[in-house]
Design goal:
The longest helix is centred in the first third of the chain and has 19 residues. The strands form two sheets. This protein has a six-stranded mixed sheet with strand order 6-8-5-9-7-10, with helices on both faces. It has a four-stranded mixed sheet with strand order 1-4-2-3. Helices cover 36% and strands 22% of the residues. The chain has two domains: 132 residues, PurM-like, N-terminal domain (60s Ribosomal Protein L30, Chain: A); 164 residues, PurM-like C-terminal domain (Phosphoribosyl-aminoimidazole Synthetase, Chain A, domain 2), CATH 3.90.650.10. Bound molecules: adenosine-5'-diphosphate and magnesium ion. The site of adenosine-5'-diphosphate has 13 residues, from strand 2 and strand 3. Adenosine-5'-diphosphate binds next to strand 2 and strand 3.
């Protein structure tokens, strides 16, 4: 006989509260916020077929569902505290639930972030997590703080998740080991939580990369009222992506999506603190460009792409079409 709703919650999701003042089992959970701190919160939904493929192993789905939320806390420089889980399941599949909860709690425990409540219902597979983190009053990193003259940085490597997606789509093929490497980047992103906190008071603005570098950068530029120059040859990517044709590299690094790296700005004078933050967090950081003044008042935010010599590089949707042909 299959588990009922409450048995399912008890077996797979109910664990004793640790940091929370009140955890699972009541009508509300209760969180304490120490004085001098503010609560940072974000919510991300994952829908099968849109945000993940049915080929994704349950354990990795559990990881990714929380990872994309922790990435939002990281972008704000917040320390993870707790999360809620709203789950729609087509049926009670215990093999799925065991794997899902294992992947979910492994990442949660790695970041000291505890599950404090949620909702469980029957329906098409859908996972909605809300995260709660702490940040010192007025200390959150924002999208709006980029200033003319700031350097532009990115963490880690870009584009592997998109490369893996293209393999799933059948537009290109990779040797087995290479495919597993990029597939892991797509399915098991590592949220840059330690880096985000280390960048508080150092970075002037930050955002996490979920929709692709150019799109996410444009959010920062618009909110900050500035333009940017990006050095296309400086964009960090893996050896696997580096072995691909230049058009594929550019598509994946510039408009890839699902990277979950941090994109941030800092004044040149803070370069030593930026590299110290990267070392403290154990994450490679790459300077990929700089913030420049608004070319034309009232116009949309603009990113100029240049090569190593400073010559303009065109990046059109055409290269995207070419790739997909
Ligand atoms: P209510 O009827 O008040 O909405 P529920 O009966 O839905 O509460 O849930 C009972 C308890 O189990 C609540 O504390 C709720 O937060 C928790 N809960 C429900 N689903 C989940 C889940 N998927 N993960 C964690 N906690 C859950
Ligand atoms: Mg309910």
């Amino acid at each position: 006989m299959s588990l009922g709703e409450f048995d399912l919650i008890k077996k797979y999701f109910d664990r004793p509260a640790r940091r929370a003042a009140l955890g699972i089992g009541d009508d509300c959970a209760v969180l304490a916020v120490p004085s001098g701190m503010q609560l940072a919160t974000s919510c991300d939904m994952l829908v099968e077929g849109r945000h993940f493929l049915s080929t994704l192993a349950p354990e990795r789905l559990g990881h990714k569902a929380l990872a994309v939320n922790l990435s939002d806390l990281a972008a704000c420089g917040a320390e993870p505290q707790a999360f809620t889980l709203a789950l729609a399941l087509p049926r009670v599949d215990e093999a799925f639930l065991a794997g899902f909860s294992r992947g979910l709690f492994a990442l949660a425990d790695a970041h000291g972030c505890e599950l404090i409540g949620g909702d469980t219902t029957r329906g098409p597979l859908n996972i909605c997590i809300s995260v709660f983190g702490q940040v010192p009053v007025a200390g959150a990193l924002l999208r709006s703080g980029a200033r003319v003259g700031d350097d532009l940085y990115v963490s880690g490597a870009l584009g592997d998740a998109r490369l893996a997606l293209e393999v799933f789509r059948g537009t290109l093929t990779l040797a087995g080991g290479d495919f597993e490497t990029v597939r892991r980047a797509m399915e098991m992103p590592q949220p840059r939580v330690a880096l985000g906190q280390a960048l508080r008071g150092v970075a002037s603005s930050a955002i996490d990369l979920s929709d692709g570098l150019l799109g996410d950068l444009s959010h920062v530029l618009r909110r900050s009222g500035v333009d940017a120059v990006v050095e296309i040859d400086a964009l960090p990517c893996s050896a696997v992506l580096r072995a691909q044709p230049v058009a594929v590299q550019r598509l994946c690094t510039l408009s890839g999506g699902d990277d979950y790296e941090l994109l941030f700005t800092a004044p040149p004078a803070r370069a030593p603190q930026v590299s110290a933050a990267g070392i403290a967090a154990g994450v490679a950081l790459t300077r990929i460009g700089r913030i420049v003044g608004r070319a034309a008042a009232g116009h949309a935010a603009h990113t100029a792409l240049v090569d190593a010599k400073g010559y303009a590089v065109m990046h059109h949707a055409a290269s995207f079409d070419h790739f997909r042909a």
